[in-house]
Amino acid sequence: MSNSKKIKNKKIIGREEKVMKSIFYALITIFALICLFPFLLLISSSFMNEKEILTEGYKLIPSQISFSAYKFLGSNMTKLANAYKTTITIAVGGTLLGLFLMSMGGYVLCRNDFKFRNQISFFIYFTTLFSGGLIPSYILMVNGLGLKDSLWALILPGLMSPWSIFLMRNFMKSIPDSLYESAAIDGAGDFRIYWKIFMPLSKPSLATIGLFLTLGYWNEWYNAMLYIQSTNKYPLQFFLQKIVTQANVQLLVQQGLSINTADLPSESIKMATAVAAIGPIILVYPFVQKYFVSGLTIGAVKG
Q: Is residue 61 within 8 Å of 276, Cβ to Cβ?
């Protein structure tokens, strides 16, 4: 084949690649906008007037900007601040403690010189098939551990995850054994090898598991409903659910008294509480996104 034909074929291939890339980027952009639309609608609806929502439904561009929903949230600012404090406490504390325990478990299970690793792995996997149920769990937390109205009742249930332990194990298996052997020859113990070598090299899997842990604790409300009695210990999601319930109750009272229901943002308050709940966690995600993607892909292919 002559050089001119080769150059011509390269140009044709280059044009085809550009066309395919353009189509691909266009499809990804459209898909991203479709995913972004509900979030924009959520923010927009939180600023809508209650009367407009009831008559015209939720809209991307409201006819009139209203801050009544956020004013209603602001009337509970002290309790809202306490709820944020509680959620941040359990999210940060639970995530750090969970990462420490599950990474240690993954490190032990990835070691070929650990005799009972297969039996313990099966035991951990077995817990994903069965659970004790609600009543035994409640009795254990309240009567056995005495954690009624304690923040530990919100942290302990989500602290360990079999899926996350196996993800850590699979990721740590990809770390060369030569690093372990060379550190052991230099006199380093297992904990020092785990902390100084395996942990720094496991940032992608740690970020992946940490994101799941943080999201789980951030969205915590069910255990709070079961175990928490003090209002100053309500986590954010449970407190916001109480706010929505309070708005609905006041709406029913107003209807019974024939008062203008448009004064109470019962619909827009739902959107405002959703914005208050997801706003901080969205700000955190971009910082762990690259680790999150690589952690999922590497942990998925290593067996």
A: no
Closest Cα to residue 53, out of 287, 291, 272?
272
pLDDT digits (tens, 9 = 90+) for 78-98: 888 888 899 999 999 999 999
Query: For 167-216, what is each residue's pLDDT tens digit?
Result: 889 888 888 888 888 888 888 888 898 898 899 888 888 888 888 898 88
Q: Indicate the SS3 state at residue 80.
A: helix
* 8 Å CB contact between 149 and 83: no
- Running DSSP on this structure, what letter comes out for residue 56? H
Phi, psi at 289, each rounded to 5°: -60, -45
Does 56 map to a domain? no
Residue with tokens 């504390």: 93
C-alpha span between 66 and 53 (Å, rounded): 11
Question: Please, where are the H alpha helices in 157-301?
Answer: 162-173, 177-185, 190-193, 199-201, 203-218, 222-227, 236-256, 268-301
Cα separation, 225 vs 227, in Å, equals 6
Q: Is the dihedral of CA 217, 218, 223, 224 positive or negative?
A: positive
Decide: 228 and 253 in contact? Cβ < 8 Å: no
Is residue 62, in this structure, part of any structural domain at all? no
CATH number of the domain bearing residue 130: 1.10.3720.10
